[in-house]
Amino acid sequence: MTKFNLNAAAIAILAASVFAVSCKKDQQQQAPAEKPVGANLIVPANGATLSGVLGTGKTVRDTIHLTGGTYLLQGLVYVDTLDVIKIDAGTTIKGIVGAPGGTLVVTRGAKIEANGTATQPIVFTSNSGSPASGQIGGLVILGRAKTNQTNPLIEGIGGTPPADTHYGGTQVADNSGILKYVRIQYAGYELSTDNELNGLTLGGVGSGTTIDFVEVYKAADDGIEFFGGDVNASHLVVVNPLDDGLDFDNGYTGRIQYALVVEDSTRADKSTSNGIESDNNSVGSQALPITKPLIANLTIIGLPSQALATKTNFLPSGTGKYGVVAHWRRSSQFQVYNSVFLGFERGFLLDNTVPAGGTTVDTQEKYRDGVSIIKNNLVHAFTTPFASNPAYPFTATKAYPAAADNNSGFANALNANAAIRLVNPFNRGIAGFYRPGNDPLNPSPAATGGLTTGLPAGIVGTSFRGAVSADAAADWITGWTVLGY
Question: In which domain, by residue range, is 277 found?
Fold first, then answer.
């Protein structure tokens, strides 16, 4: 296998550029300067192992072009500021199992152009002959959009990395590139206790970035975690995460439309596995911007039985447990429309307490009334579809779950799918198991009832609820994803 360390000037395309790069590096050590506009093209050979900081130095703007085939990542591999990594459709990038496992980190100011297709997705996976959750660190993208923290470092890396791992800034429309038809498998490397990478980790990523048709399969932490930023994402699939399907923190304010989260019924995390977990920040302060995702057409499929949903002794830790379908806590806010949730002990939980010390925040309800909205959704729970802590009634006078908002809550239903009637949401061997059933004598309420108007800017109205319609021809999930156990 070719060893390919992109820090070496020898990998430049033109031999003449090697000497120039070397000279520029010497100058950079004396007087740091921003990279020039001129670009240097680097094309690693098929089978190459990428390591360290990619590119030829701080003073050269590089494009690293992976032209198909298979490449390896050894440890934490960084795309340096203002550089671009371009990945062609059909490319497979395998992380070498280790401490840490192979991980690609796109630093603040750099770009990734991963433009796959439905028939040739780009795949990040483990190089192990027996791939398993958490063997690699997955994909990390850091941007310059707003957060409610001061120049934060992304979690899950630690130490003194050779490239900058801060994220955030003031550029709302910052562009970190494109992810389209990309699969990330067996990611979520745990650096230390409660300090993990996710399948896809996004820090301060701006709205100029495109994230569309992305699947995360068997992550060892969260499927996708958004740390601040305002990137919009669509056509997301998260399958078998150990912890939360989607996680929002540090002032994330983007839009998510058309997404499917399918829980792993064989394991759960010690920190409690939720469909959604959302915090304004780790201490629950009301720092701005407030975490407030706008979500539409999301389907979250939990567990097929109450026994599994309440189990607390998952091996090997013996401490794993499931939580709620959507845990909104620590001063975070939300708007959720046209979505379907089923298979958890509890549904929507508005939890405005900070666990450390149990401090209650927002006692004046300053950030409650008229702020968060859940409208035209179907919510199943084995016990309670809607709850709040501190106790806060869901009434039609508040912008919370209410009959006036056309939210159907199905509680104490031991058959999680009895009222929602998806095709067969707990049988992944059936094509379109996540779609609404279209039995004309007993149609699924998910096939209708969606809002088509009156939605926030950028959200498309649909007559159906959930990630897809009942029409098999409109199924955007089949073909490029992994949905098995």
Answer: 3-474
